[in-house]
Specification:
The protein is 60% helix and 4% strand. The termini are far apart. The longest helix is centred in the middle third of the chain and has 29 residues. β1 and β2 form a beta hairpin. It has seven helices and two strands. It has a two-stranded antiparallel sheet with strand order 1-2.
Length: 246
């Protein structure tokens, strides 16, 4: 039985979203690894206030997100098929570059070690989008990003409400504004599947055991640089390696 292009596209997007949501359910895939059971445990007393495990992991997650969402934004700018898609890409690039700059500024002050490279799973997210073309590229990228941005809102709200560290609180404020901006421009593309996005915000599926370990990128897969293309002016910089501290 042959599948229509529309059906095939829906299956493709659904598979990409399943991979994304699976990674969100397992933070170690995103370069975040909790070392204790209590996220409220204070791990350092800084001049900006006590730092908990949740505070530290939040800073790491923000940095880690930019390592794959920034290059995805570059792809959207370069290959988006509509002005709205290209504009969404520009917002992704600019927003994550600013968040990254904040993370790199506060990490040494708080004694936090930041990741410098996207994980294999994160690279696979980008490769999934990069492997599509035309309108399917737009749809796949938009829906992956819309789900991930929607799911980060509760995390930001919880950190903002509970942290006693002023630097982490400021990062949460910035992240909240950035995520809201990104959701807005993604929705303006007209490609968001709200039924699917809303369902997966409340009922994220669990992956089978054989999918818990992310596969490495396939040999020959394109490498997405974390640099801005010529002529792009977002008044900010790309994510860059940060010193190892902590």
């Amino acid at each position: 039985m042959r599948l229509s292009r529309r059906t095939t596209g829906s299956v493709f997007v659904g598979g990409a979203l399943a991979l994304t949501l699976g990674a969100l359910a397992y933070p170690t895939m995103l370069g975040v690894q909790n070392t204790a059971t209590s996220s409220s445990r204070v791990i350092a007393n800084t001049r900006y206030g006590p730092l908990t495990e949740a505070d530290r992991d939040f800073v790491v997650k923000v940095r880690s997100a930019g390592l794959w969402e920034h290059p995805l934004g570059l792809l959207a700018m370069q290959r988006g098929t509509t002005p709205e898609m290209k504009e969404a890409g520009k917002h992704l690039v600019a927003g994550h570059a600013r968040l990254d700059a904040t993370c790199r500024r506060i990490a040494p002050e708080l004694g936090i070690t930041l990741p410098n490279q996207a994980t294999p799973q994160q690279q696979q997210f980008v490769a999934t989008v990069d492997g599509s073309t035309g309108k399917q590229f737009d749809t796949t990228a938009v829906n992956i990003m819309r789900v991930t941005h929607g799911q980060i809102f509760p995390v930001i709200a919880n950190i903002r409400a509970t942290t006693r560290n002023t630097m982490v609180r400021q990062l949460a404020d910035q992240a909240n504004d950035t995520v809201l901006d990104h959701i807005t421009v993604l929705e303006k593309t007209g490609l968001v599947n709200f039924d699917q996005a809303n369902f997966q915000q409340t009922s994220p599926p669990k992956l089978p055991k054989d999918q818990l370990t992310p596969p490495p990128p396939q040999p020959g897969a394109p490498v997405v640089a974390l640099t801005e293309p010529p002529g792009l002016d977002v008044n900010t910089t790309s994510p860059t390696p940060s010193p190892t501290v902590g």
